[in-house]
Structure formats: structure tokens, C-alpha cells
Amino acid sequence: HLATSLPLPSERDHLRPRIDLIAFMIDIKSKYSLKNVEASLAHVDASFFLGKVCFLVTGVGRVNYCSVEMNAIWKLGEVYCSPVLFCELELEGIRVATAQRLLRMLQICAGHIPGVSALSFGSLMRNSADD
Predict the structure, then answer these.
(1) What is the pLDDT of residues 113-126, one digit of tens each?
(2) Cβ distance 53 to 24 under 8 Å?
(3) Where would you tag: which of 17, 39, 101, 102 has the fewest CB atoms within 10 A of its CB?
(4) What is the torsional sign of CA 33, 38, 43, 47?
């Protein structure tokens, strides 16, 4: 399910499936994109930041057209203890690899991978980023 911002409308709460992962998309070419994500974060329950949130940054192949400071994006990941993924949607190979990575994250967050929890996976992601 896709939403342009949070909070989600409450009138369909009873029809909404369980939310296992929230991927916030940030277009590196749009300051509005970052501002929208920052505003939406206030509507996410704190328990989701235990491995069930990630930031997906698009447009990274066009660094010359950046409107968003990379430090601001890294800070989001750090403050919310959530992984930051970078991709270029215009390149099919990278798009497919990113989709597969998100799918694997979703499987872990939904509890479909025995022995791996969203919290431990999030910790592994942060540790590998530090290396």
C-alpha cells in the first residue's frame, strides 16, 4: 500500500491490513520530499523504529541535481535508528536489487524468516553501515 504522507485516513482503519514495514521514500532532488517525510515521522508509533522503518533515497545517480543534504538523510537514519537505502530507480538492475532487498526486509519484519527478528535485523544493518 502506498501513501503520500501520514497519518493515514482513519475511515478505513477496519479494512487496513497489519503494517509490517514502513519505507519512507526521499527524492534527493526534492527538499519537499524530505520535509514531507520529516512531518510524517511524527505520526509513526515509536515501536516501529525498532526495525520496522527504513528510508529509501532515490535519485542518487544525479548528485549534481541534489536539493537535499546527505547529512540530513544520514541524521534521519541515526536519530530514528533505521537503515538508509540508496537507489536509482531509472536503472533496472538497481531497481530490481532494491526491490529484492525491500522484500527481504519485509519478510523479516513480518516474521516469515525463522530466527531473525526485525530488531536484530535493524541492528545488523546499523552495524554493517558502521564498518
Answers:
(1) 888 877 776 666 65
(2) yes
(3) 17
(4) positive
